[in-house]
């Protein structure tokens, strides 16, 4: 990849896409293409075809997706499967038709079975039933992996897939109901401190274990994976298990996360756990040996990453209050 290569980042306003752009610019890439959802409807086959025919990008980072936490996945399953299937199908197919040789598709750790062996190795894919609360989203992401694999096999292109663990950081979605666990809890703790509340309620039992990766680490890993020579990448993958896990390889309980967030936000009250809310998958820890062997490891520790994220949240809290 030359520094003047035309790079299209789909989903550039999202948490991951914006982080990828920041890091691409930092290392000297200056020919980056973006389109907002108002400028380009990624669910429209015709609009995506017209865009690729006009722009002819050299490289594509496919970070666009409809995302959300347990509540959002439970409430809008049809939207989650439809929109994600359409976005990835349109972009991957038009990338092929318009001569894009290198593409990176970003998935999710929810592709693995609910009761997958821990830590989850890439070969666990399709080895069991998915977690019901996010099954539609997970099926769409699995389809994206298989699209990349199939286009590689049939057309000889170089389309890769990276499966991140739970992400957090700058530009996260802090909606009180439709966000993921870290931004939802961080907002709850922040508002409790502001309001002088003596209690913060945590959804679920607090027992499930989760792994968290700062979005800046995810962006660095994405660029690293995309830049690898094909022969190096292929040495650690195969055409039917071509995706790579991206994470820290370290997890914690939701209770431990809540306690860390209490320290970060300086909340002095009590933690209560609402067991009427679903826990989701008992544990989701990624095995990241494949990525380590390729030469990359995460660098941002959880508490430090949460402190950085909280500073960003406070600077943008007024803008996010109605989000």
TrEMBL record:
- For this entry, the protein name equals GDP-L-fucose synthase
Enzyme Commission number, as recorded: 1.1.1.271
Q: What is the lineage of its organism?
A: Bacteria, Pseudomonadati, Lentisphaerota, Lentisphaeria, Lentisphaerales
- What's any GO biological process attached to this entry? 'de novo' GDP-L-fucose biosynthetic process
Instruction: Detail which positions bind NADP(+).
Output: 11-17, 106-109, 141, 164-167, 180
Species assigned in the record: Lentisphaera araneosa HTCC2155
What are the GO MF terms of this UniProt record? GDP-L-fucose synthase activity; isomerase activity; NADP+ binding
Pathways involved:
Nucleotide-sugar biosynthesis; GDP-L-fucose biosynthesis via de novo pathway; GDP-L-fucose from GDP-alpha-D-mannose: step 2/2
Family statement drawn from the similarity comment of this UniProt entry: Belongs to the NAD(P)-dependent epimerase/dehydratase family. Fucose synthase subfamily.
> Which keywords does UniProt give here?
Isomerase, Multifunctional enzyme, NADP, Oxidoreductase
> Looking at the keywords, is Isomerase present?
yes
Q: Where is the active site?
A: 137
Q: Which gene encodes it?
A: fcl
Keyword presence, Cell inner membrane: no
Q: Where is this site: Important for catalytic activity?
A: 108, 110
Query: Which residues hold substrate?
Result: 188, 203, 210, 279
Explain the purpose of this protein: Catalyzes the two-step NADP-dependent conversion of GDP-4-dehydro-6-deoxy-D-mannose to GDP-fucose, involving an epimerase and a reductase reaction.
Ranges of residues in domain NAD-dependent epimerase/dehydratase: 7-227
Top-rank taxon of the source lineage equals Bacteria
The record's section on InterPro entries has: Epimerase_deHydtase, GDP_fucose/colitose_synth, NAD(P)-bd_dom_sf
> Could you tell me which Pfam families the record lists for this protein?
Epimerase
Spell out the reaction equation it catalyses. Answer: GDP-beta-L-fucose + NADP(+) = GDP-4-dehydro-alpha-D-rhamnose + NADPH + H(+)
């Amino acid at each position: 990849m030359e520094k003047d290569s035309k790079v299209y980042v789909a989903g550039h306003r999202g948490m991951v896409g914006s982080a990828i752009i920041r890091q691409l610019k930092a290392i000297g890439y200056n020919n980056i293409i973006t389109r907002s959802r108002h400028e380009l409807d990624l669910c429209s086959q015709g609009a995506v075809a017209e865009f690729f025919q006009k722009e002819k990008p050299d490289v594509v980072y496919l970070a666009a997706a409809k995302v959300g936490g347990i509540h959002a996945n439970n409430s809008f399953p049809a939207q989650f499967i439809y929109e994600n299937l359409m976005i990835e199908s349109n972009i991957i197919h038009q990338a092929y038709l318009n001569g894009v040789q290198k593409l990176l598709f970003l998935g999710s750790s929810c592709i693995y079975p609910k009761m997958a062996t821990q830590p989850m190795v890439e070969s666990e894919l399709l080895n069991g039933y998915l977690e019901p609360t996010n099954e539609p989203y997970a099926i769409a992401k699995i389809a994206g992996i298989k699209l990349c694999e199939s286009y590689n096999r049939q057309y000889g292109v170089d389309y890769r897939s990276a499966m991140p663990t739970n992400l957090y950081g700058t530009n996260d979605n802090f909606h009180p109901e439709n966000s993921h666990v870290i931004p939802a809890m961080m907002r709850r703790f922040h508002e409790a401190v502001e309001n002088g509340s003596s209690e913060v309620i945590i959804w679920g039992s607090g027992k499930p274990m989760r792994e968290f990766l700062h979005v800046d680490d995810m962006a660095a890993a994405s660029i690293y994976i995309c830049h690898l020579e094909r022969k190096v990448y292929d040495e650690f993958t195969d055409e039917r298990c071509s995706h790579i896990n991206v994470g820290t390889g370290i997890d914690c309980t939701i209770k431990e996360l809540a306690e860390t967030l209490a320290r970060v936000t300086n909340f002095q009250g009590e933690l209560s756990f609402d067991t009427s809310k679903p826990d989701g998958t008992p544990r989701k820890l990624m095995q990241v040996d494949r990525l380590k062997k390729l030469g990359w490891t995460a660098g941002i520790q959880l508490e430090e990453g949460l402190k950085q994220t909280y500073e960003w949240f406070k600077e943008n809290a007024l803008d996010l209050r109605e989000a």
